[in-house]
C-alpha cells in the first residue's frame, strides 16, 4: 500500500484555546509517507494552537524521520504534551522525548535501545555506515539526557541492554512526568513483524501493541436447557423424541500472539543463516499465514540469496523475496541482468576461429632462433 500515512492530525478547541492532537499509531517513516509530509501538515494546523498533544503507540521506525519530528516539536512555541498510549519503542521513544510533559498510563511501556540498520557494500561502505550509526546514537543519547537528566554512562548501559520500562520505572528515571489510570489500548498496524526485531520484547508489550484481547471472545454455544416438565398421562408417547443435535464446537480464532511467534521464527532463522536483511521481505511475502508457509518462504529466501550471490548481485535478493518470486523466476531475472551488463561492457563482435588477423600475433621462439643463426654466418 503506497502513501498510507502513519500519523493522524486533528485540531480541536478547549477553554485554553486551539489544541492540535497528532497520533502516531504505526511505524514511523514507512508506507511511502515521510516526516516531510508530517511536518507540513503539522505546520498547517498548529500555527495558532496553544498546545500540541502527541499520542504515540508505535514500535519505532526510521530514526532520521523521528529526529525530524523531535526537532520540529522542540521548536514549537506552545506547550507540547507527549502521551504514550501503548508502547513507545525505539525511534518512537525519541519522539516522546520532545514533550514538555510526558504522560504514560499505568499499562504503557517505553523502550530505548541502540539504533540498528541493514547495510550492503564494500568494507569502506560498512565502516561509513557504522560511523553514521554512532552519530545517530549520540543524537538519541542527547535527547534522552535532556529529558531524564541521567548520565551518559547510565543511558548507554540501558541502550546497550535494550531496556523496557513500565510507566513507574520511566517516571523514576525521569523519562515520564505524569502517570494516568490504565486505558484500553488501540492496535498498532503490522506490529508482529516489527516487535520480532527486538530480542527482549515482553509478552505483555506484544499484547499492548497488537491489541491482543481487545476483541471480545466468541460467544460460547448456548447450553442445553433441560426439557420442560411434562405432567404424567395415562397414554405415554409411542416413540421417544429425537435427541437434540450436539452443539458444534466453535473454531478457535487465531490469536495475535501467533503472528508474533511466526515473526520471531523468521527473524531467528534469518539471523542463524546470516540473512537478516531478508527477514522483513519474508514477513511480507509469507503474510505470516502459518508455519508451513513461513518455512517455505524462508527456504525460498535462502535459495534466492544463493542465486543472487552466485550472480554477484546479492542486493537484488531483498526485492526478489519481497515480491514472492520463485527460484526459476529469479534465475530468469538474473540472467537478463547479467547479459545486459555484459552487452554494456563489451559490444564488439568476437573474431571467428579462421580470422587470424583479428588475433594479436606475438613473437615466436622459432623465428627468433632462425634470425640469430642467420646472422652468425
TrEMBL record:
Residues 341-350 have a biased composition (Polar residues). Residues 218-250 have a biased composition (Pro residues). SUPFAM superfamilies: ClpP/crotonase (SSF52096). Keywords: Cytoplasm, Hydrolase, Protease, Serine protease. GO terms for biological process: protein quality control for misfolded or incompletely synthesized proteins. Residues 208-254, 341-377 are annotated as: Disordered. The keyword Protease applies. InterPro entries: ClpP, ClpP/crotonase-like_dom_sf, ClpP/TepA. Pfam families: CLP_protease. GO terms for molecular function: ATP-dependent peptidase activity; ATPase binding; serine-type endopeptidase activity. One of its GO terms (cellular component) is endopeptidase Clp complex. Belongs to the peptidase S14 family. PANTHER family: ATP-DEPENDENT CLP PROTEASE PROTEOLYTIC SUBUNIT. NCBIfam families: Clp_rel_HeadMat. This is ATP-dependent Clp protease proteolytic subunit.
Amino acid at each position: 500500500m503506497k502513501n498510507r500515512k502513519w500519523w493522524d492530525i486533528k485540531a480541536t478547541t478547549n477553554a485554553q484555546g486551539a489544541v492540535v492532537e497528532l497520533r502516531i499509531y504505526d511505524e514511523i517513516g514507512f508506507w511511502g509517507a515521510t516526516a516531510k509530509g508530517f511536518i507540513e501538515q503539522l505546520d498547517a494546523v498548529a500555527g495558532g494552537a496553544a498546545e500540541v498533544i502527541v499520542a504515540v503507540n508505535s514500535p519505532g521506525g526510521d530514526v532520521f524521520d523521528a529526529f525530524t519530528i523531535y526537532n520540529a516539536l522542540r521548536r514549537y512555541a506552545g506547550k507540547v504534551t507527549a502521551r504514550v498510549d501503548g508502547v513507545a519503542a525505539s525511534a518512537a521513544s525519541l519522539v516522546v522525548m520532545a514533550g514538555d510533559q510526558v504522560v504514560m498510563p499505568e499499562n504503557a511501556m517505553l523502550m530505548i535501545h541502540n539504533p540498528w540498520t541493514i547495510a550492503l557494500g564494500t568494507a569502506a561502505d560498512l565502516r561509513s555506515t557504522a560511523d553514521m550509526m554512532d552519530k545517530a546514537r549520540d543524537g538519541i543519547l542527547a535527547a534522552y539526557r535532556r529529558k531524564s537528566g541521567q548520565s551518559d554512562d547510565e543511558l548507554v548501559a540501558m541502550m546497550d541492554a535494550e531496556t523496557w520500562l513500565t510507566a513507574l520505572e520511566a517516571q523514576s528515571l525521569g523519562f515520564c512526568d505524569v502517570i494516568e489510570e490504565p486505558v484500553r489500548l488501540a492496535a498498532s498496524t503490522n506490529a508482529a513483524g516489527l516487535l520480532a526485531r527486538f530480542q527482549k520484547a515482553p509478552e505483555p508489550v506484544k499484547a499492548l501493541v497488537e491489541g491482543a484481547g481487545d476483541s471480545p471472545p466468541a460467544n460460547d454455544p448456548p447450553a442445553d436447557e433441560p426439557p420442560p416438565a411434562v405432567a404424567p398421562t395415562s397414554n405415554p408417547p409411542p416413540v421417544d423424541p429425537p435427541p437434540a443435535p450436539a452443539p458444534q464446537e466453535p473454531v478457535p480464532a487465531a490469536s495475535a500472539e501467533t503472528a508474533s511467534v511466526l515473526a520471531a521464527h523468521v527473524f531467528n532463522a534469518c539471523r542463524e543463516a546470516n540473512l537478516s536483511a531478508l527477514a522483513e521481505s519474508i514477513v511480507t511475502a509469507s503474510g505470516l499465514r502459518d508455519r508451513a508457509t513461513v518455512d517455505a518462504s524462508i527456504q525460498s529466501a535462502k535459495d534466492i540469496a544463493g542465486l543472487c550471490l552466485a550472480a554477484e548481485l546479492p542486493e537484488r535478493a531483498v526485492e526478489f523475496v519481497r515480491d514472492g518470486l520463485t527460484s526459476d523466476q529469479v534465475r530468469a531475472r538474473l540472467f537478463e541482468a547479467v547479459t545486459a551488463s555484459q552487452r554494456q561492457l563489451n559490444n564488439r563482435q568476437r573474431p571467428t576461429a579462421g580470422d587470424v588477423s583479428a588475433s594479436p600475433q606475438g613473437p615466436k621462439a622459432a623465428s627468433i632462433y632462425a634470425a640469430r643463426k642467420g646472422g652468425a654466418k
